[in-house]
Amino acid sequence: MQRTLSIIKPDGVSKKLIGEVIKIFETAGFRIVAMKMKQLSRAEAEGFYYVHKERPFFGELVEFMISGPVVIMVLEGNDVVLGNREIMGATDPAEAAQGTIRARWADSKQNNIVHGSDSVKNAEFEIAYFFSGIEMY
Ligand code: ATP
Ligand code: MG
């Protein structure tokens, strides 16, 4: 059994896709073991995406991530890290497989509706960044 961190980004929330995305996760058999809505501070967004801090898009990415509230979830299931990435689709919606969340609703490489941890190790960091043990069920 694995856990991964999922975020419905500000564009997903403003497009009223919270329900759609949760439905997709539950239909896929993932269990939601923690969830909260939150507007990230600049420091929180920068800390979360610190691995990208040298990338040219870092400043814009942080601005985007703090532009409105997000929904942060911990998903649990067999191979959920990779399974969630498959359901999300590629970063760039133009390259995302048909039927994936990003192919259906993302507007651009940046405004791509959802975040998902890309490895078990990063999932551990990202889950601990937002949730304490007693907030997971
Ligand atoms: P995420 O980490 O959000 O799940 P990802 O793992 O598919 O997405 P990363 O390479 O980790 O993609 O990039 C993190 C986020 O930074 C992307 O989801 C996107 O919002 C933004 N991003 C990535 N590449 C670009 C780019 N070339 N231009 C603008 N924004 C980008
Ligand atoms: Mg990533």
What does this 3D model show about the protein?
- A four-stranded antiparallel sheet has the order 2-3-1-4.
- The protein has helices spanning 10-14, 18-27, 42-48, 58-65, 80-88, 101-105, 120-130; strands spanning 2-8, 31-38, 70-77, 114-116.
- The protein is an alpha+beta fold.
- It contains seven helices and four strands.
- Residues 52, 57, 61, 91, 109-110, 112, 115-116, 118 line the site of adenosine-5'-triphosphate.
What is the chain-wise order of helices and strands? EHHEHHEHHEH
What structural class is derived from the secondary structure elements?
alpha+beta
> Nearest-angstrom radius of gyration?
14 Å
Q: Can you identify the CATH class?
A: Alpha Beta
When the domains are counted, the total is: 1
Strand content: 15-25%
- Return the CATH architecture: 2-Layer Sandwich
Output the number of helix runs: 7
Summarize, please.
The protein has 137 residues and is an alpha+beta fold.
Task: Give short descriptive properties of this protein.
4 strands; 7 helices; binds adenosine-5'-triphosphate; 19% strand; Alpha-Beta Plaits; alpha+beta
Describe the secondary structure blueprint for this structure.
Blueprint: E1 2-8, H1 10-14, H2 18-27, E2 31-38, H3 42-48, H4 58-65, E3 70-77, H5 80-88, H6 101-105, E4 114-116, H7 120-130
Antiparallel strand pairs: 1-3, 1-4, 2-3
